[in-house]
């Protein structure tokens, strides 16, 4: 499996899609997706752009594996909901939410010995 195919597979699995669902969402056939995931072929530029737009993935990370922290691949669905919700907030609400997170972490650290 090539690295880009592996990253595409990770995006698919992170979004709880089977190959047919994921392929339909990005506009390719399931067979083509399978070949990409196992490394027998590379995705076209159109496919990469479709993945970027559909799944909001950092294109640099998708192509190179660099910049993962900028990508939109999540540890779990709760993290996905939090990050996507945060991105929809105005700047004031973002700052307020960050302050709440800092407060929760400070309280947690006081409770652990």
UniProtKB/TrEMBL annotation:
A UniProt-annotated Pfam family: HTH_19
GO molecular function, one term: DNA-binding transcription factor activity
Residues spanning the membrane: none
Domain HTH cro/C1-type: 8-62
GO cellular component, as recorded: cytosol
Keyword check for DNA-binding: yes
Keywords, comma-separated and alphabetical: DNA-binding
Protein origin, superkingdom: Bacteria
InterPro entries: Cro/C1-type_HTH, Lambda_DNA-bd_dom_sf, TransReg_Diox_bact_type
Entries under PANTHER family matching the protein: HTH-TYPE TRANSCRIPTIONAL REGULATOR (PTHR46797), METHYLPHOSPHONATE SYNTHASE (PTHR46797:SF1)
Protein name: Transcriptional regulator, contains XRE-family HTH domain
Species this chain originates from: Paenibacillus algorifonticola
Top-level taxonomy: Bacteria, Bacillati, Bacillota, Bacilli, Bacillales
